[in-house]
Write a structure and sequence with these properties.
Elements lengths: L1 H8 L6 H14 L3 H14 L6 H12 L2 H13 L5 H19 L4 H14 L4 H13 L3 H14 L6 H10 L4 H9 L6 H13 L3 H8 L9 H14 L3 H13 L5 E4 L5 E2 L14 E4 L7
Antiparallel strand pairs: 1-2, 1-3
Length: about 290
Amino acid sequence: LLQETYEEMIKNNNTAILGYRGLMEQYLQAHDFHHAYIYGEKLFNINPYVEKIYETLVNIIAKTKHWQQLLLITDKALSKKIIDKLTYQENKAIAFFEISKIKKDSNREDSIKLIEKAIKLKKNFPPFVDLYVNLLIENKQYDFAKKTLRRAWSDFPHLDYKSNIMLLAKNLDMSFHELAKHIVGSNNSKEESKILLVEAAIDNNKWQEARNQIKDLLDVKPKRDICLLMAKIEEGDSNDIQKVNSWKLRAKNGEISNLWVCSITNKPQNDWSSLSNSGYFNSLVWNRCHLQPV
């Protein structure tokens, strides 16, 4: 009955806005995002200044993964001065990133061009750079991938790059240890750099080097991942089960290192995504959280 009322309202110019909004919200409540977007877009085209209509449409797009629509509606929103330049750049970058992921297997060259557009709009953002490096490796552009990783690490060291560093090392016929040292370069004082070098030393069975690298991270109450790395060092170096178990026990009480945390719900997750596991678009920030990731 309510739906019929809204459908009658959209036939009248004086009540069309209320009608379209009502239909959009009804379909949202029913989790019918396809029809919710249809009516929301019509509402946006009639009056793009309706409160939170752009944000609502962006969230629907993120749930339905219609990323081309995000490009179009974000251009319109900027032209109508509904969003600022930063929001425009962020949302366009995410759209390019997501479309790049979709094209990754079918058209690598297009995928590379799209992720380059994303990085141009949101520089040095690790999830974007990580995809870019992975594409470069798949495209056998190993030297350029190495330069890109070194530059990215200099600007914003991030342990999400570890898997690509290992993959690139294999393709360059280098050890993970050797490449990690090259990537870190002179930027070896940051915590992320020390952790990467510890992991690389462990991978290469260089136990004393691993101990030297990790000692600055062993404060009164070391973080969980540091304790677990110490357990690996003790296991590989001394095979002292008592020491290994002691570090594993300390790890249980150690603080969790930075994770991607939803700024709205404070729920963490291991990997960045444009739509958080909590269901919010572009809400993840790299931060500390006391909860376990989901």
